[in-house]
Amino acid sequence: MKICWQRDSMLSMAGLMVAAALFLPQPWQTGGRGRSESRPPQLIVLLVFAKEDSQSNGFCWACEKANFRCSMARTPESALECFLEKHHDLIIIDHRHSRHFDAEALCRSIRVVSSSENTVIVAVVKRYVQFADPPLPLCPFLRYVENANMMACYNELLQLEHGEVRSQFKLRAGNAIFTAMEQSQEAIEITSEDQVIQYVNPAYESITGYQQGELIGKEIIEVPKSEKNKPDLLETINSCIRKGKEWQGIYYAKKKNGDSIQQNVKITPVIGQGGKYKDRRKGSLDVRSTTSRGSDGSSQRRHSSMARIHSMTIEAPITKVINIINAAQESSPMPVAEALDRVLEILRTTELYSPQLGTKDEDPHTNDLVGGLMTDGLRRLSGNEYIFSTKQPHHIPGQLTTPLSLNDIPPRIAQTMENEDSWDFDIFNLEAATMKQPLTYLGLKIFSRFGVCEFLNCPEATLRSWLQVIEANYHSSNSYHNSSHAADVLHATAYFLCKERVKQSLDPIDEVAALIAATVHDVDHPGRTNSFLCNAGSELAILYNDTAVLESHHAALAFQITTRDDKCNIFKNIERNEYRTLRQAIIDMVLATEMTKHFEHVNKFVNSINKPLAALEENGESVKSILTSPENRILVKRMLIKCADISNPCRALELCIEWAGRISEEYFAQTDEEKRQGLPVVMPVFDRKTCSIPKSQISFIDYFITDMFDAWDAFADLPNLMQHLDNNFKYWKGLDEKKLHNLRPPPE
């Protein structure tokens, strides 16, 4: 009998031949630790493109350069016929033009063939196009965003070879190994790290008399042992295994009927990925092969989110570099792999994540959204600049009918806040009940729930005064950027802070900072974009050098308002160093809501948190070091407030529609004013006479929302938000397909 144990799983077997089949890697699998590395068997690639173009030529060239065998098919019928003949390892299907053929139907046809089980299928999709639904179970596309650059195609093939394709080779080998174990005449037993039995083969059942159902899930120590073994035998074995050494000797097993049988046993530690040397590869796991361990049925959804994260439409060059380094690590000697780990650490903590945005001329709505939200305006050279003055007095609340404390809230208002901890909480009901003062009331309840006054050593009356003066400095005349939006973002922030993964990441001071940042993040917003202020030559734009103008103003004004009067200074009783830490966190979160760095923040979160987390979870390692590092806590807080700030498309449909109408009206008003003042029109599609609101929402979801919330969902587990997002996208898509421009279809 041969027993092989490792830290993460243990394999016990009888028979040296089966053991050799199980633990001797294929020639192309060896590598690292000084061994020679050869490539997998020559890959066979099938390209399915209806017409020859630069993209198909790019992949043809890449296949030739990579020394892959390549076939080309022009129709689904010829593609299926070719696959049945050659059983390709990789299929790349053109999914950009549905008029030529149905790529998903072709994928399903291929998946019906049993030999396609280990075939990797990639769809070439249009730039800026996202799938509204997760990939179908029978149609698991990986996505390649069209890029005809030959080196881009070559790099993609290399990543696929070292990622998905190699994984499929290993799975294929694993299936063969499992068959060998099932057919083996020797007893085989597999246990987990803590010696819980996970598998026994038929020979084990025959020899010992036990059935699988009697053993699986039990610890080895629960199975009766023969008294003929020496008392300290198991400790001797465990001590040897912990040192990574083999042990060989006589072991007496006990059959179910009580008889003892003598076995000649060799015990070998199993090492490799997931075993003793796994730390060297901790950053190299391909996220596309990772699944969640959720017990609530969300595994497939979260797998889809992680897959989409890996193939994000907006991808920075640095992300490609990281993926290539990860792939290279798999076949590198130990010193090189360790050096590459250090390279990855440097890349993940520097400002290298801004994406290269391609041309968006084919979609004016997306073009205008990106131009309006992610640039600092077009400066006019005439000198005839519109001055947007900010010298309005900042309001101090007078006789506001707000409560002295949480206990004084009128019952009708308290009733509207009963479900404020639910994602489907209706902020507009509270807006109406409080006569447009929802921030003060909701703030009192949420801050009380999180113990903010206790943390700040601040009386509730001071908190109430602070909430009043902050709310008074929001412009109720704005259709969107008013205190109702601030209250909505505060609600979303509180909801996210209650998610288990977020709670594991953040300290109490982070939670307090997040709640305060959400409250003040748009204070004194003028209802105009940064681009407008820069084009208008406003005093704010001049003050902040056309850089993050509004966000800088919100953060600065919030602290000015707070600290100038002791009656509303919620920070006056905390220690100086704690105040500085809190202040820095609040400023950082408010500045993170600026959209010019949207993709930088999302890419950093994915590459520094999501992908390493997935790798650790796959290997069963502790994720605490990833979650609690100072750098990653900052990334979590930025992502949290960003998602809270633009979560409207993830709200229930009626709330989503209301917010869409409000933001559209604010953009319409800006366009009207730009035309009146002779300023550059930042977002021409937001002309109230011609704008299609459904198209604008579709573009916003496609370009900004989908990838970000896929990443946030993979981290925080938010199935209800993702379902709302899916429903809302379909709603806007349905209106657009009917060529409707308004928020709702006409009444029947």
Descriptive account of the structure:
51% of the residues lie in helices and 8% in strands. With 748 residues, it is an alpha/beta fold. The chain folds into four domains: 2-38 and 187-267, Beta-Lactamase (2-Layer Sandwich); 44-179, 3-Layer(aba) Sandwich (Rossmann fold), CATH 3.40.50; 285-348, no CATH class; 365-737, 3'5'-cyclic nucleotide phosphodiesterase, catalytic domain (Catalytic domain of cyclic nucleotide phosphodiesterase 4b2b). The strands form two sheets. The protein has a six-stranded mixed sheet with strand order 9-8-2-1-11-10, with helices on both faces. It is globular and about 90 Å long. The N and C termini lie far apart (77 Å). The model is unreliable at 1-39, 129-139, 272-314, 356-361 and 379-401 (pLDDT under 50).
List the topology elements.
Layout lengths: L1 E4 L3 E5 L2 H8 L20 E5 L5 H12 L3 E5 L2 H11 L3 E5 L8 H10 L7 E6 L16 E4 L4 H34 L4 E5 L4 E4 L1 H7 L3 H4 L17 H10 L4 E8 L5 E8 L31 H12 L6 H13 L4 H15 L15 H11 L36 H6 L10 H7 L4 H12 L2 H5 L3 H13 L10 H15 L2 H6 L2 H13 L9 H7 L2 H5 L5 H15 L12 H17 L5 H21 L5 H5 L1 H16 L7 H25 L15 H24 L2 H19 L11
Parallel strand pairs: 1-11, 3-4, 3-5, 5-6, 6-7
Antiparallel strand pairs: 1-2, 2-8, 8-9, 10-11
Helix pairs in contact: 2-5, 3-4, 5-10, 9-29, 10-11, 12-29, 15-17, 15-18, 18-20, 18-27, 20-24, 20-27, 23-24, 24-27, 25-27, 25-29, 29-30
What global shape is seen?
A: globular
- Cα Rg: 30 Å
In CATH, what is the class of the largest domain?
Mainly Alpha
Can you summarize the main beta sheet? 6 strands, mixed
Give the termini separation: 77 Å
What's the mean pLDDT score? Answer: 79
Could you say what the CATH architecture of the largest domain is?
Orthogonal Bundle
Order of strands across the biggest sheet?
Answer: 9-8-2-1-11-10
Tell me the fraction of residues in β-strands, as a range.
5-15%
EC number: 3.1.4.-
Domain PDEase: 405-739
Keywords: cAMP, Hydrolase, Metal-binding, Phosphoprotein, Signal
Pathway: Purine metabolism; 3',5'-cyclic AMP degradation; AMP from 3',5'-cyclic AMP: step 1/1
